[in-house]
Amino acid sequence: MAEISHMTQETRPAKPTIRTRWQAMRESDLWYSFLSHPSAIFAACLLALVALSAILAPVISPQDPYDLAALELWNAEIPPIWKDGGQWPYLLGTDTQGRDILSAILYGSRISLIIGFASVLVALAVGLSLGLIAGYFGGWVDNVIMRLGDVLLSMPFILIAILISAMATAALPTGLKDVLAAPILIFAIAVPSWVQYARTVRASAMVERKKEYVQAARLIRVKPWRIMLHHILPNCMTPIMVAATLNFGLAILSEATLSFLGVGMPPDQPSLGTLIRIGNQYLFSGLWWIVVFPAVQLCLIVLSVNMIGDWLRDALNPKLR
Question: Measured between alpha carbons, how far is 123 from 121 in angstroms, rounded to an integer?
Answer without folding.
Answer: 6
